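Need tokens for this chain, all 157 residues.
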Amino acid sequence: MREIVNVLFVCLGNICRSPMAEAVLRSKIAKRRLTESIKVDSAGTGDWHIGKVPHEGTRRILDQKGISYADMTARLVSSSDFDSFQYIICMDNSNAENVRKLPGGDKAELLFFMDLLPDEELREVPDPYFTGNFEQVYDLIDAGCDVLLDKIIQEKL
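Here are the structure tokens for all 157 residues:
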């Protein structure tokens, strides 16, 4: 029996980018009938929104795309995540630095989401909490999650 692959997306407040990526990747996993093989979660490096549902802008675009975000609430990334997740994917450099400051974080293998999309000029996923551009972020996340899922299948399944 194969080990379950665990993916964690990390952003600042865990209400915009990382839960959007969690929902999108879960949807893609379900379409490929891999829900027993790959699990996805998201977390934030800031504690302002702990326990809250995804941001209205994230919910709106996911609703438009028919993607569920049921049972998703914001949580903080923790040192224990380094033992639980094979893929920890940060949305920007600032959040990667915050993860690295956690006990054991200096040894964690972090990925940057935009490294999945090397042809894009952007090197960080813009934070729509500040930009308001949830459509741009969705397009980046949708494309990046396709690449990520192929990478996981190739490397782990």
